[in-house]
Amino acid sequence: MKARERFPKVVVGALVFNKKGEALLLKTHKWGNKYGLAGGKVRYGETLKEAVKREVLEETGLAVSEIEFFIVQQMARPKEFYKDVHFIAINFLCKTSKTKVTLNEESEEYVWVKPEVSLRLELNAPTREFMREYVKRKSGKANYCEGR
Fold first, then answer.
1. What is the CATH number of the domain that holds 59?
2. Using CB atoms within 10 A as the burial measure, which of 39, 121, 128, 143 is most buried?
């Protein structure tokens, strides 16, 4: 009998900015109690931007707008995640007009932080990579030919 085939899961991630230019990071037990982005699985028939809006609203109570693509990340069996998975993460930047966050059961705490300062926090590995890339691009030091 053939072993059950497993396939990567398509997920979205969202770096949400408030009016002060601060980014929202969520601390979650799913990622070893480290900070990460809001996000989750894309449902069948759902667009990526619809998934971003839904996931951010479910996890934070925030409505987002101005959703724009940022980066794709592959997370093949990430060590920090609480179970064995393979994610293809399509990540976005977006904005909210609110700062009052209502967390669901997936997260324990949150922080609004300037992106440069976020690198001092205990971030999960994919979020650290994301934030480094964001800070590099924002500073104009990005090298788009790194072969990632």
1. 3.90.79.10
2. 39
82 in a domain, yes or no? yes
- Please give the residue range of the domain that contains residue 111: 9-139
Across-strand partners of 74?
Answer: 88
CA angle centred on 67, ends 118 and 20, rounded to 5°? 45
| Residue 3 domain-assigned (yes or no) | no
Q: For residue 146, is it within any domain? A: no
- The number of folded domains in the chain is 1
Please give the DSSP secondary-structure letter assigned to residue 3.
P
What is the tally of helices (H) and strands (E) in the chain? 3, 7
- Asked if 73 contacts 89 with a C-beta cutoff of 8 angstroms, the reply is yes
Question: pLDDT tens digit string along 31-88?
Answer: 999 999 999 999 999 999 999 999 999 999 999 999 999 999 999 998 999 999 999 9
The predicted model scores a pTM of 0.90
The residue whose two tokens read 């929202």 is: 24
Judge whether 31 and 119 are in contact, CB under 8 Å: no
Q: How, if at all, do strands 86-95 and 9-17 pair?
A: parallel
Q: Determine the residue type at 84.
A: D
- Using alpha carbons, select from 96, 56, 138 the residue that is nearest to residue 48: 56
